[in-house]
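Support reply, case 0932

Customer input (verbatim):
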Amino acid sequence: MTSHVIVEADGGSRGNPGPAGYGAVVKDSDGQVLAERKESLGVVTNNVAEYNGLIAGLAAAAEVGASTVDVRMDSKLVVEQMSGRWKIKHPDMQPLAERAKELAGGFSRVKYEWIPRAQNSHADRLANEAMDAATGKPAAGRPGAATAGRATRVARQTAVRGPAAAERDSGATEAPAPKLPTRKPDRAAVGWTGARGTPTRLLLLRHGQTEMSALRRYSGRGDVPLTELGRSQVAAAAKRLAAMEGLVVDGEAVPIISSPLTRTKQTAQAVADALGGRVETHPGLIETDFGDWEGLTFAEAADRDPELHRSWLSDSAVPPPGGESFDVVHRRVRKARDELIAEHGGRTLVLVSHVTPIKTLLRMGLDAGPQLLFRLHLDLASLSIVEFYPDGNASVRLVNDTSHLA
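Our regenerated output:
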């Protein structure tokens, strides 16, 4: 028997919801592995899988006779909810949290701590092995992982599944959210720029991979879903955002606002699941209408309309055939930005959109000309940050960050 143990747990799904699994490892104070747990869960969301990892880890800690437990996870949502600092509003999460609390009540003390994903690699590996099994892929686990004292099973009653996240919010009613405090101005930015007032901070997240983006084809209004890789990309981005400070205030997630297309709504839902929030859509965040070039590669469009394509690349007022010009997109996105600032001024917003609208918002923040659209590269599932101040000043804080995909 070991009086004090460390539980590291993780979970994930490839699709959110999608084929899911969890992993958990119990260690003693010296880091010696006492027990491992992993299991495939069928089709559930990331958060359901993460909670099941916690439940399995606590159950395993009880089996080895622990009296005190330090739980370490890279899920900010689970750690904050189990610590009592964030509300548990979604019905999927409530029975999971209750089961975890029941198990935690059997110990004299349980402490919850958030850790970076890199420090949770053992549980992450187990969770990925379980997800591989759920999708029929061969697991790449190390030999001997299923030896005595490192059992890979967990009693089925410790796993509580919830419905898909898309079904979770339909018809749900909640009490009106309390008025949330606005952000304080960044003194460093104010000192260097002379900006006044509290800025509206926009976290700009590009959607994950689709079949069109994988083939490098113009993808505007065509409503294509994320690929499996795209779903993995947005799950990583969602974990990144969940670990950032200030995106949940008094248990309420910041507004998460998406383009109305499927690929962005899927991306935004992953973020909402990670933060415990909900997705709104705004038509102003939709991608450029590429008209007759939709679905073509750069070379195919240039071959089809050589003169027009050359003009389009040098003049933001020129539209594709049957589409909209970048000048039209600029006016549309500026209107959307102004509307969002009018409604949410002084707060942080997560905006999930596409290449052109995100570049356009960054262009506004830099007060740059339209050539920026052709010289700035944005990767799939990349994060950029721009702040707009009430006095008209702006500050671009981050551009095309993909560190969460490493």
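We compared this against your earlier run and they match. Two observations from our side: The longest helix spans residues 326-344. The radius of gyration is 23 Å. Please reopen the case if you see a mismatch on your end.
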